[in-house]
Amino acid sequence: MEFEREFSTEEQCREYLFKLRWPNGFICPNCGHNKAWQTGEMEYKCQSCGHKTTVIAGTIFQGTHKPLTLWFRAIWYVTSQKNGASAQGLQKILGLGSYHTAWGWLHKLRRAMIRPDRDKLHGRIEVDETYLGAPEAGGKPGRGAEKKVLIVIAVEVDGRKMGRVRMDIVENASSDELHRFIDEAVKKGSTIISDGWSGYNGISSKGYSHEIQIKKDEETALPHVHIVISLLKRWILGTLQGSWSKDYIVFYLDEFSFRFNRRNSKSRGMLFYRLLQNAVQLKPVTYGDIQRYS
After folding, report:
1. DSSP 235-251
2. How many CA atoms lie within 13 A of 273 on its CB side?
3. CA 91 – CA 114 distance, rounded (Å)
4. Looking at residue 288, what is its pLDDT?
5. d(CA 111, CA 78)
6. CA dist list (Å): 173 to 30, 46, 53, 112, 193
7. Spans of the chain, pLDDT less than 70
8. What one-character DSSP code corresponds to residue 160?
């Protein structure tokens, strides 16, 4: 009810997006000037250079032909689902005539779940890889598996507690790929905790400390990252009913990370706010961009 009161009109949604995009007042994306004339419901003309822009220009809402009230309802629905949302569910709850539209919106929102300038992990970080995909008959197990997607996962650990996660697709478990991921995801000076796989060799020369954990008796090496791997696979089987395409797995990793990193948030409204905040910072995502992953 509170959501409907706050965002029942296009004007309310536009005003909210304006505050998220320009919290300290209008800034021209062309010259940086802070004064503009409002020339339309969403359009502003810079008083310095004359550049025209809108509240949704340069965001994931750019070019939409659907009302913002519908987009806001979509974001509320996605963030209010504890375990995730499906395109079919989104289509039904919004009354969309096209499954394709719901599918495209959901993937756009998944892209917006990752803030472009997000902070890197720091401290003690467990790192490991896993394969996603059904096992192939006669295929190789483990790091030599074929026709699967290899995911590398990093988890902040503090004693028995887990912090944030980062995950990405890698081509293989080589040093080049694993070191690249660590460099992009983890702050220098942190401690990388891995198993004895050779792909992690040399990471200490890149500005990190390196610890190796080997399984001993009943003791499990890298327990935190293995919990995350288990949760990720269970989430894919449960929320997506195991029906996912490896062409778009990067979008699902974004959604899982967004939800996991905010698992202790008691306010659905805060998740809604964070996703909208990211949505106005992210460059437009077209259907062509989504299809490019295939």
Report:
1. HHHHHSTT---GGGHHH
2. 9
3. 23
4. 65
5. 13
6. 43, 50, 45, 28, 16
7. 134-147, 216-219, 240-245, 286-294
8. T
CB of 83 within 8 A of CB of 235?
Answer: yes
Closest CA to 46 of 73, 21, 27: 27
CA distance 289 to 294: 10
Dump pLDDT digits (tens) for 213-226: 987 655 578 999 99
In order of start, what are the domains of the chain with their CATH numbers?
2-112+268-291 (no CATH), 124-261 (3.30.420.10)
Whether 158 contacts 124, CB under 8 Å:
yes
Bridge partners of 149, per DSSP, are 132
Report the SS3 class of residue 209.
strand
Predicted local distance difference test score (pLDDT) of residue 148 = 81
Which regions of the chain does DSSP assign to beta strands (E)?
36-38, 43-46, 52-54, 124-132, 149-158, 161-169, 191-194, 209-212
Lookup: tokens for 170: 């890698």
